[in-house]
Amino acid sequence: MKFSLFVHMERWDEQVSHRQLFEDLTELTLMAEKGGFSTVWIGEHHAMEYTISPSPMPLLAYLAARTETIHLGAGTIIAPFWHPIRVAGECALLDVISNGRMEVGLARGAYQFEFDRMANGMPASEGGAALREMVPAVRALWQGDYAHDGAIWKFPTSTSVPKPVQKPMPPMWIAARDPDSHNFAVANGCNVMVTPLMKGDEEVVDLKNKFEAALANNPGVPRPQLMVLRHTHVHAENDPEGWKIGAQAINRFYRTFDAWFGNKQTPENGFLPPSPEAKFAERPEFGLESLHKTAMIGTPKDVIERIRYYQELGVDEFSFWCDNSLPHEEKRKSLELFINEVVPAFR
Predict the structure, then answer these.
(1) What is the distance between the alpha carbons of residues 290 and 302, in angstroms, rounded to a whole number?
(2) Residue 110 near residue 124, CB atoms below 8 Å
(3) pLDDT tens digits, 243-272
(4) Where is the Luciferase-like domain (predicted)?
(5) What are the start-end ranges of the E strands in the chain?
């Protein structure tokens, strides 16, 4: 079992500066590297303070200079917002800067809010076409001269400059949920990253079964890696009420996610308040007890037990998602407990 850190700068009000958030993200990454984590993942989001990352590349390039072993993962690049030549070149440059530690995840995108601003209002549901066209184009550009005549992009003979350090090419990941996404990833030799979001471990089983079905549909293809991403908060054994801190924070995160995903309000200077708790009176998955069971919340012993179950299912990487609305000090304590008491159980 490999472990990775999924992290963004997240800002809930103007009391914490962007510079401080940048330093906090750096500290968490350095802790993760020292703790033996395989990868730090940073995604792409636009014009929203609660998930700050207009491009993962500058952050990852900086972290490449501050680290030695941890891989730098773009998790994920939103395919409809990019051009294949730019994806190939920027990812390859990060691979050169990090001396072969770049990994890239690609996704179709989710927030209609972002598509309204970044893709002229294109329906977010149509983003999959760009993803499917992007993957083979980027890989071809990494290999050498390539001309592209697709439905979305057309360009004459070009190549990735620079070329990646990793041979034959850096690891590529696909954010997958439905069977078609799993099939596409496996057929194209890509690793798969999944998140059960607010659903329980039965969703992990369902996503793993979709992954296994894709393997069966593509005989002869080497088995790619499977990563599960979960909101994670670890509390001390002697703090029996500690789980409530994590559950309350993750509840706030998902109510904010709901507000942005609903795309019914105009944010003010990048802020959008969480949807009111009353909205979820009939939605038990938002309840604290439910989140205690679904998110990776608990003592080190609790967390070890659940991750062992994931390992038995065939999950290769567990990603510690620390975006949760908690102050940095709480995140640091949780990650420290995970590193000191959970990770050693899998070594």
Answers:
(1) 15
(2) yes
(3) 999 999 999 999 999 999 999 999 999 999
(4) 1-317
(5) 2-6, 39-42, 71-78, 102-107, 146-149, 154-158, 172-175, 191-194, 226-234, 296-298, 317-321
